[in-house]
Amino acid sequence: MSTATTAPAAKSPAGKKAGKRRLSLPVVLLIVAGALIALSAVRAISGAQDITASGQIGAALSMAVPIGLAGLGGLWAERAGVVNIGLEGMMILGTFFGAWAGWQTNPWIGVLAGVLGGMFGGLLHAVATVTFGVDHIISGIAINILALGVTTYFAKLWFNSPEAAAKGGSPKQSPPAESIDTLSLPGISDWLYSVEKHHWFFVSDVAGILGGLVTKVSLLTIVAVLLFALTFWVLWKTSFGLRLRSAGENPIAAESLGVNVYKYKYIAVIVSGGMAGLGGAFLSLVTSHIYNEGQTGGRGYIGLAAMIFGNWRPGGLAMGAGLFGFADALQLRNGGTSVHALLLLLVVLLVGLALWKAYRKAFLAAAICAVIAAGVLVWYLGTDTVPTEFVSATPYVVTLLVLSLSAQRLRMPRANGMRYRKGQGK
């Protein structure tokens, strides 16, 4: 006769994660309201009215879309366990082929060509990493180099032809393509702008932000927003998404349950390239209407940073892309004066972070934040603007700051970047 005993259930990492508090909607709204109040105070104290102007917000939205699409591409790939450093190269392919098809036909055909160009880059990355087991970082860097070389060669060949040159083409630039239509909310846009012009504390700032989001919004921007919602639904609300994410969490276990891990990795990486290619097409067809050599400007890498900041989730990724897009638009539109005003906002954030670290008894981190806040405050009070070199580096500085401050709460897919071979678990 035997006696059955039940061992106490061990706490899994997932159970520990589940015990952590997640931000509820009221808390998120409170954080957003606090950020708006801080921006309003900075605008009122510094006199930099452009910080929350509708034009600034519209430009920030336009800058955020390609970053967000690149990050969305990274999210698809990494949720399936494939690190995609090649997002920059896939964006380059999207800018080139989007502009090439766009100026010859119409911009929507250009968008499709840009997506296909990025998908081709994703396919190369999938073949190298999934089929042949090449290191993901090496494959991604190779694609970035290859994409730059291929587009440089074909730009000299195609955009310097007599027909293209007659329409404004050159070895480093394509002829301009037609514009993609924009939408505005009739009546509401004008009313919000009239409220914004009064420069009332908080009220005018909210009006300026909302006005920038509903005035002259490109149709491709709306498509990008829908893709974020679609990504969340597919990856977290469908059985297909569950299988794809299982390939990035535990491919051996997924294979034992009958999941074709290779297939889902291929799909994810090809979709990843298509998203990045769409972001590149946005740059060449919406932001500037032409292809320019070096047009992506590292946005593929910034998109990857936005994805990490968002903890591999679409909502957090959207917030990260918006933050980086805001910084990018600020340095392009307003230069040193507005960036100088944001130094005051940085002081407030660092002081708040120092207080939080002190509350959590991380006294060394609190002291470091306090010292940096004091230094930035001295810089703000002793100057009227910031150097041009710092202004142009603003998006990249913001990227480093955000990643360094958010690193402790991140949790990537468990099998992300790991080499997987079919039948490994047998």
Descriptors for this entry?
globular, 1% strand, two-stranded antiparallel sheet, disordered N terminus, mainly alpha
In short:
This protein is mainly alpha-helical and 426 residues long. The protein contains 19 helices and 2 strands.
Write up what this structure looks like.
The chain is an all-alpha fold. It is 71% helix and 1% strand. It has 19 helices and two strands. The chain has helices at 13-19, 25-46, 54-79, 87-104, 107-131, 136-158, 162-166, 188-196, 203-214, 219-237, 239-249, 251-256, 261-287, 299-309, 314-333, 336-359, 363-382, 388-392, 394-406, and strands at 182-183, 217-218. A two-stranded antiparallel sheet has the order 1-2. 44% of the residues are buried.
Structural class: mainly alpha
Strand order of the largest sheet: 1-2
Q: What is the 3D form?
A: globular
Care to count the β-strands? 2
- Approximate helicity band: over 70%
Distance between the termini: 35 Å
Q: What is the number of helical segments per DSSP (H or I, 4+ residues)?
A: 19
Radius of gyration: 24 Å
Mean pLDDT across all residues, rounded?
A: 86
What's the assembly state of these chains? Answer: single chain
- The run of helices and strands is HHHHHHHEHHEHHHHHHHHHH
Strand count, sense and barrel status of the largest sheet are: 2 strands, antiparallel
Regions with little confidence, pLDDT below 50 for 5+ residues: 1-20
Strand percentage? under 5%
